[in-house]
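BUG: 3D viewer hangs when loading the predicted structure for this chain

Environment: internal workstation, default settings.
Expected: structure renders.
Actual: progress bar stalls at 90%.

Input used:
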Amino acid sequence: MQRQHTSNRTVILLILGLLSAVGPFSIDMYLPAFQTIANDFNIPVDKVQLSLTSFFIGIAFGQLIYGPLLDKYGRKKPLLVGLLIYIVATLLCIMTRDIEHLIALRFLQALGSCAGMVASRAMIQDYYEPREAARVFSLLMLVIAISPILAPSAGALLLNHLDWHYIFVSLLAIGIIILVATYFYLPESYKGSADFSLRPKAIVGKFWEVLTNKTFLIYCLVGSIASSGLYAYLAGSSFVMQQHYGLSQTQYGLAFAFVASAMIFATQVNRALLKKCSSPQISKIANIWQSLIALLMFAGLLTDTLNFPILLGLIFCYLLGHGFIFPNTSAMALSPFKALAGSASALLGCVQMAIGALTSGLVSFFHNGTIFPMVIVMGVAALLSLFIHFFGGKSADTAAF
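Structure tokens produced before the viewer hung:
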């Protein structure tokens, strides 16, 4: 694949960051509204949580569609179609008046938003060598990490003055801005391959080629399972902080912003560490750190000492580890692929979101009015990720790092 270089590097990175963040922003901005939506529809809050699970399922499923399209038709055309789907679905979310339609429309909204996630990862592989790609992933992670700081606070601010539907009005405006920026300012990084077949058998064969690559499989699982702890936190945080600990919507937004700042700090330190350390080394140490935090959370549950300040601090430390794990494992998983960057990116994102959907669904399924479901799922995710890293990472190819 022909690598391209441009003087508009900053603009391109900004747009790639926005494309990566549109999904997370669509998740985080309406989290403070869970109880408000439940009250509006006269339903329990755990049913509103299913709209988050449907979003994760939509992102997981949709990425499998976009991956082959990005390899066949280039990066921009499928990306623009996805953004249009996102805009239409968001418009329909504004008009919905019942939870069943909201759950379905969030699935459709996710199908559109995931185009940006797949395309941005594939474009990084088009432009950069593996080690540099890890640093660029850290930059994108910075943009993604800002969304949990801005989005819940913005959502809470809107809820203080307007109806919850206006959260989706804001998302609609964001989607339109990103569509315009992508169309006019993001250059095509790969023209596509006319030889790439879209027949189901051929597509499955390409995905299988990616999935059976040992480096991809190991680091995809390590990163995805570690990330699933974040999704468990997203699913449970609204209840835990607002209902269990009694925070207001504004206080919840501030608390959410505080713990999200851990990822911003981690991604910037990660960029500096990559000048001296390898991605496998950094991600393994971060795995150990996150698992130690998980054990502390378990100890807090057993001793009934998890008051709000302690839990908030532990979640901050937990997400600190995630900020090191995600960019490094993503770069390592995608490093073996150039011509199949779109398919590899799609499969990576699908696995990440499928496991995220599972963990968020588990938090909702085991909802019992306590903090136990969220904390236990987060802890198990960290420990399982560390286990795979230690026992599977030895057989993965890390020569490029």
